[in-house]
Every structure is written in C-alpha cells, then in structure tokens.
What we know:
The protein is built from 27 helices and 40 strands. It is α/β, with parallel strands linked by helices.
Amino acid sequence: MREKLVIVGNGMAPGRMLEHLFEADPDRYAVTIFNAEPRVNYNRLMLSPVLSGEKRYEEIITHGDDWYAANGVTLHKASPVSLIDRTARRVVSANGIVADYDRLVVATGSTPFIPPVPGHQLAGVVTYRDLDDVEKMLSMPPGSRIVVIGGGLLGLEAAAGLRMRGMEVTVLHLSPTLMERQLDPAAGYLLEKAFTERGIRILTRANTKAILGVERVEGVELEDGTRIASDMVVMAVGIRPATGLAKAAGLAVNRGIVVDDQLRTDDPHVFALGECAEHRGMCYGLVAPLYEMAQVLAGTLLGQEAAYHGSVTSTKLKVTGIDLFSAGDFGEGEDREEIVLRDATAGVYKRLVLKDDRIIGAVLYGETADGPWFFDMLRKGTDTRPMRDTLIFGQAYQGGAPLDPMAAVAALPDDAEICGCNGVCKGRITGTITAKGLADLDGVRAHTKASASCGSCTHLVEQLLHLTLGDAYNPAAVKPMCGCTEYGHGDVRRLIVAKGLKSIPAVMQELEWKTSCGCAKCRPALNYYLVSEWPGEYEDDGQSRFINERVHANIQKDGTYSVVPRMWGGVTNPRELRAIADVADKFAIPTIKVTGGQRIDLLGVKKEDLPAVWADLNAAGMVSGAAYAKGLRTVKTCVGSDWCRFGTQDSTGLGIRLEKFMWGAWTPAKVKLAVSGCPRNCAEATCKDIGVVCVDSGYDIHFAGAAGLDIKGTELLCHADTEDEALEIIVALTQLYREQGHYLERIYKWARRVGTDSIRAAIVDDRMKRKHYFERFAHSQTFAQVDPWQERVNGKDAHEFAAMAEFGLPVAAE
C-alpha cells in the first residue's frame, strides 16, 4: 500500500519536488495537495510578463489538470488548510476537506509585507504576489495613475508591466538606490535612468507617510509633504514567510519554519519547503534555492542520502530590454578588491568583487551573457589569478583573445546553471537533447523548461544545441509555406515585389513551385499577397479562396449559411431592422442572433437563397459585414460623449468613420476594432486587434490584443491628439500589417514576430512613413470597396449559388 503524502501549498517548489519524486519512483506515494488558489501550479516568475501582456496565464502554467490526473495526484483547489493535527496525522481545510498523512510537506510560501501606514486598508491598495493580484492591476483602464511602493525586484517588474499596459506609473523607494540589496550605486543609477526613459517616474529616498482617500485610493503623501495623485497603490516592499499554520500546529518557528539539512521540521513526519522554510537561519525568496531544496526533499522522501547545505543566489530582472544580473556580496571592505568595466556609449557596466583572488560578488548591467560563468566561479570559489588580467571581459576572452562562443559554452561544467528561472543546468540540457533526439529550441523548452520562462538564457540554450548537434542544428532554417515550395512566407512576399510577379502562375513558375497548381495552404496565401501588393492590377482569384470567402457567407454545420450585414460602428435604424425582419420571414430563416461585435446574424440561410437575401438587404442600404473574411470585420463602439455621462470623445462617430474608411480591405487574418469613449472601456478596446480608448486629451491607440483561442491584452502604441491623427495612425498601422503579415497571422502574432519597436518606429516615430502607408491603404481602397453581395446579386459567380441539378432515371440511363 502506498504511503500518504499530503502537501500544503501548490507553488513552484512543491511542483518541482513532485517532478523529481515521480521521475524516481512514481508509485511510492499517494499524493494529495491543498492549494489556497483556485487554479493549478504556475510559474510565478512569469507574472511580470503576464502583467505586461507579453505572456498569457495559460503560457505560464507549469502543471495543468492533465498532469495531476496522469500522476494520480488529488488536487484540492481553493482549499486553504486551517488545521494540522499532528497527533492524528491529519489536515483539515477551511472548506471542510480532511486528509490523513504519513508524510506532510508544508509549503505555504510567503505573504507580502504591507507597511501599516494610514490608508493601507483602502480599496485600491494591492500587493504583487499571485495571479489574483495581477488581475486586480489589469482591471485598471489604460491611463490610470499607479503608485508602486518599493523599488526592489518585484516593484520594478510591476512598474514596467503596468507602463507597458498604458498606465502612468510612479515608483517610490525608500533607499537612494533601486534594488539596493542586489545592486551597487553605479548599476542602480543605470537602472533608474532606463526606467525613467520608459516614462516611469522614480522617486528615491521617498518615505510614504499616508495613503490618501476616503473609501478608495486617491493619492499618496510622503514624509516631506509631497502628494502624488493615484488610482491604485501597489505594495511591493517585501515578503514574510507564511508560518501561521505551522506555528498553530506547534512546530518550531523563528522567522520561518525551522528545518534541518533534510528539510525536516522538529516533527519527523513533517517537512517544510520553499519560502516558508528557515534553514541554518536563512529564508530564501528566490527560485534557485527553492529548486535545490525541492531536489533534496524528494531524495529524503525516497529514503536517499540527501542534504541541503544552503544556497548562493543570483538575481535577474525580468523586464524586456533591460539586462541585469547580480550575485553574491558586492559591499566594500579593506580585504576586498574590485574590477570595474564601464562603456557609457553601449550602456554597459560590470563589476566584480574579489576576496583572496576569488569572486564573492558580481554586478552586470547591459551585457549579462557571462553571468552564469561568473556565478559558477563564485559558487565554486575558483582561483582567478591565472585569468586576472582578462577576467572582467568574460569567458570568451580567457587566453587573451576572443574565443569561439562554442568553445566558451563547451568549457562550462555540466553543473553550471543555464536557466535560473527553472533551475536547469548544462548537463541536463545536453543529456536531454541526446536522449530525446531534440533538434530545436521548442523541444528543449518542452522537455527541460530551459528558456521557457523569461527567455534571457535562450542564446546559451541555442549554443548548447549547436554544441550537441553540430551542423545538424540550423536555427535559421526557414519554415516553408507548404510542401510545394522551399520558400517561407516572408521570402515569397519579398520576391513577389522584387520580381514584379502579378499572377499565381507567375509566382509558381519563377519561384520553382514543386507542384503544378499549388495546394490549399499556398494558393490562398499567394492570392492574398498578390491582392495586397498589386491593387487594381491583380484580379482576385475566387477559386483560391476558402468556401466562406468564395460565397461571402459563413457555412454552418448543416450546410446552410449565416448572413451578417454591416452596421457601421454597431449603429442601426428602423429601416434596417425592418428589412432584417422581413428577410427572416420571407426566407424562413430560423435563427436571428445578436453578435459580440454589435451586429445581427441571420443563421440557417439556404445557399441558393443567398443572392435574394442580399438583394433585399441591399435595398435597405446594407452591405456585406464580411463576417467570413480575412479582413475588417467590425468596429465595436460605446455611446461615447453623445449619451454617456463619462464619455470624453465621440467614440461612436470615430468608430463609424473608421469602419466606413476601412471596410472591404483584405488583410492576412481577420481584424476587429473597437473604440471606447472613456477609460472605463465599455467597448472592450483593449482585447482587440486595434483599439482606441478615448481620454480627455485625445485618443490612446492600442493594438495586438486577442480574445479567442488566445487571450491577450493590447499594447499601447501611442497617443493621438485629434480624431484625424487617430484615423491616420490606425489606417497606417493596418497597412503595415497588410504588407508585412504572413497569411493567417493575426496582428498580435505579427507584432510578436517583427517587434513592437519596429512598428512604433514606422508608424509613430516617422511621420513620412506613416503618411506613405496611409496613402497606400487609401489607394487600395479605391479598388476594394465594392460590395460583394451587390456584385453577386447582379450575377457574378452565379454558378456558386445554383441549385444542384436533379437527374431522373431515364436521363441517368442515357
């Protein structure tokens, strides 16, 4: 019979412990987990990218429901444990679940410290520790004023993420240097400069006196009398081990739950793991020590000789575009030496602190590739005398001249840490590549988790792939469009323009297609690329489109179609509504449904009835809503300043103007817009392909959101002062996407591929380029804005809508 292992807490440390446990002996324990959160295990290190919009929650899940089921784990979600009965060896949750144990692991983590300043209990004061905290922050509309108290690692990551979401952010830090526990003043200066350049206000030596407000946060007052208006306050000033449950159970507790080298408490049946544990007087809040504990505890639970001796820690800031590494002790002292390298032009600062010719501290800013190498020497106490003159230049320069990067990574020992986020060493990566036959970065991420989190170690992982696979590894290999060609989408688009190719046969001939007519993957893509590049010259090939775009309606599972007429900005009138009702009665259309895009959908239309339905809708002034199209579908709006008490601009008018200007345009994938009249965002503009949030000073333009299979908030592109400027920016952005996007690539995937900085450079920073893209779009619209319904009412593609002929037996016999 399997022993009963109960775990209180479902964070990263117990998750890693179970991985080791199941890998060694999957049948040893019957595992039950109590999780206070209402979800599965996820990577808390990646909350910052979720906050900034660079990742989704689903992308940071470590163990999904399927993993627990496959390993026979009973997971109780939203079930915080309220009692540990050590005599009966039993735990009881707050919602009444009881579980007996043979071995108990307490992994309750830590709780945020909230300074007891006046106003700290007001609504709008949040902490930053879990996904619920992130969701509270994301509930604030763009333009909100956020004060982050605490300029440490978490506070700065929160500030950067909120700024990327379009918030106005101020960071208050008590010390004169940001991240003073990890950085020296020089690196702190560079970090403060980088955050200021991002539009984040930094106030150091700022002591919070009170949080202002009656029922909800309205501002923050400092000891010097300074007042800062605020809609939300994020507390990120530190954490404390969560020891309340252990203390109530009578376990030995100092700052944390006291454990020995086997992570055992003073009760031989109870263990503590992670941030709640105190080992040799130390509590750890970084992931690497927690993973080291997890491996030791797994060995202990399996009866192996395992011991935890403490950890040396390193820190990386997870903010896109800021490279920062810190490890060890960098304080000054008479028995210490330092080596410093500064490159003001490149924004690089490196400092090594040595004692007895051994590295005891390292700070790297701007160029951090050698962080793992310095950290490995720090942990091992490597004598640096043989390399003293070139040490600061990094591993590649040992020997007096730059080495091949492959030689540098080859020289790393197998136990050198490569991925700090997930505690993965070199030997595990190279061993898994060989054992699993991995050939690319995605494979390594899937099997080891290396490079799967913040991504800062990606270049090292790629070097290990190259080192292990040799010439068989080709990271630059282009993924072909399909089996008909060796070319990828980008090359095909480029060559269509470079060679002046203006027909599908010309493309296939000049680019040496392997098939005579292409396939269902490449023909629609080629048709779109030609439509996009040569408006007015290339004639759209209907047979290279899928059925919905061919018949301009969406096919349903029973073979009938749905018809969605366009309603400009979601606005309709009695004449249009009567026409829709009359059409539904006349053609016995069974279902009429209001869509999420503020349109009306007629479902169950027979194919042969489509032209007649369209004719009646055309007579009422309605055109195709393109609900089937890889093109502009809807522009959703709220009532804005016309009717709403909070409306700042005419959102409905702008939405109608955008839709009337942009309808008919084909794009790589479907495009949905929205315009909200105020930061309350009733039109849900911040999850659309392109969204506008109106504010008192004009229009905040967002893009690259998603709300389908993928869920992603938008990124703030820029601010427009006038409606005309907003229109020009949105149209130019759409045209840039039309010219750069790969077929079926949504805007958020295109933005991720080409980089938001390049998009801002073309659309925001360079007004001449913006005008160029706007004019190209306007030119293409002179050919695109033809109602396809009206064309087919007039007889175009009549064969598509003809009923199939019925043959009697005599005719068939003939």
